[in-house]
């Protein structure tokens, strides 16, 4: 086109586009003026450039503009209207198809919460925005409902789908307006480093913008319910406040009677809904997303390599991995799920058959594993598992061990710090400290994570590796000299090291008291040792905190000694533990010896009785919620400890339930059924991938 033709073609354009005049075009093309974003948007729209091409041009323009202003900030830029985005790109599950299917999506079944959702999206007025989260399980229709609601209330607004949280954080100082920020799978932004902040969302919604996201219930509960311990971080507190600031709409797993009635009405003209209504093994929305067929594809996989690959992807998801798994990572992880006879075949041979099976669409476009692009046309970032199948296998494989090859592939192959952080946490919860250490080392060395450096030193000290702990912190301070937390930690590690070296000769000479003190300092970083010292000086608060830690650690012998020595708080804690365990005989013995705390609790036991079989039902309810609810996880592990259910705690350990590892070791300690040396090794070195205790190799 000539300049005049371009001007003529764009003459009638209205906002957000603007007409392109010949003089402006001439100045831009000859380099007299810097090409503006509006100008570039106009050209790209006029020539119908594909979205992938638009993104490249606009990012280039942003880099030039930033360079002109002496900054390297890369801003999120979107020229798409919401109603031009495809449902698939927005994260709506591909649906089953039938021979008479003509539309990409089945007919929308109006939900009971639709009115409330639309009101939430529009009730802030013309000058302010809103933050709305839909909370529900996989394939329950969350994303589809958001899609339909925004199509109704703001179809012509701009759309931003950030790939990383940083893109949003860069916008908070200069937010756009009339923009939909689409944060499907919100946990990706909450679990990143740094996470999405309350300040950022507030800045975005001070203008007429819509910020929307979706979350599974366990992901929401895990972040919005405060932990009972003092291990929370400022970031976690901010995320909690952020979620509580949102308008939260719950999406039930099953349709209500009214919704089902509307579905039956639509079934007369939509075969897919009719098929879903006839399927009894899953909910309607799950069937529409091909859920049952996906499960069958895994259960009855004709290719053992494909089944192993799907299982590996599901376990990665169970451990917290949210980014796509590369082909090489998948191949390495899959190796651990193969029988010995199948391991002989080279990966490039079986991959050629397994990948097509795992990615083959069912009922049209639904597949167990889906390829994900790398942000540029023709690139492959990796594969993600279907949500419904991931949830099914999470329940099915809840307490299954993850093989060594899968841990190794994930720790070495993941390239996002948020995923590595979740792998480190998952490994630690399961006492797989070898993989925790490797993940933390990568976070420190490759991502400059100061918190990971401090966490790594805690693990190294438990293993009596003070020199390595000091080296980790010194390397951190070389990179970031202003890291005060690392500086304080270094001083503490050196002080502990000196204390340990003073005790070590006596411990090696066979002094049982010195050996026990040395083991304890290594186990908790000297916390109980410090509290004991302060308690001897008359510090009542330190004495009470020491008792609480002795209970948590299962140190009944010292707890009894303190109770016998006249410490009331210790006597009460010991009596409470006997009541929880149903040890009436021990309680009676202490009562006869004149212990008032035991006498009081014994009278209550006579009045109320000991714990009944109802505890099993309580444990089942807590177990159902423990996966995403830290408070339920804490209560479950405490209950299993009180029931002295070693098998139950071991199962929760394998499930990665928060606190199960500490409670299991505390139970072993309290019952004195495991030798002290084995317990010390378990606490310090943990378990192998298949669950066997690790025996450390003696230092030369």
Structural overview:
By secondary structure, this protein is mostly helical. It is built from 37 helices and seven strands. α16 packs across α18, α27 packs antiparallel against α28 and α35 packs antiparallel against α36.
Looking at this protein, list some descriptive labels.
about 700 residues; mainly alpha; 5-stranded parallel sheet; two-stranded antiparallel ribbon; 37 helices; 7 strands; about 60% helix; globular
In short:
The chain has 700 residues and is mainly alpha-helical. Helix content is 59%, strand content 5%. The protein is globular and about 100 Å long.
Radius of gyration: 30 Å
Number of helices, counting only DSSP H or I runs of 4 residues or more: 37
Number of strands: 7
Mean pLDDT: 86
Structural class: mainly alpha
Strand content bin? under 5%
For the sheet with most strands, the description reads: 5 strands, parallel
Ends distance = 79 Å
Low-pLDDT segments: 70-77
What are the SSEs and their pairings?
Elements: H1 3-9, H2 22-29, H3 37-46, H4 51-68, H5 114-122, E1 130-136, H6 142-153, E2 158-160, H7 165-169, E3 179-183, H8 187-190, H9 198-205, E4 210-215, H10 217-224, H11 234-245, E5 247-251, H12 257-267, H13 271-278, H14 284-288, H15 291-299, H16 304-318, H17 327-334, H18 347-359, E6 369-372, E7 382-385, H19 387-396, H20 404-413, H21 417-429, H22 433-447, H23 450-462, H24 466-479, H25 484-508, H26 512-524, H27 527-536, H28 540-553, H29 556-564, H30 568-581, H31 584-592, H32 596-608, H33 614-626, H34 630-642, H35 646-655, H36 660-671, H37 676-685
Parallel strand pairs: 1-4, 1-5, 2-3, 3-4
Antiparallel strand pairs: 6-7
Helix pairs in contact: 3-4, 5-6, 12-13, 16-17, 16-18, 16-19, 17-20, 20-22, 21-22, 22-23, 23-24, 23-25, 24-25, 25-26, 27-28, 28-30, 29-30, 30-32, 31-32, 33-34, 34-36, 35-36
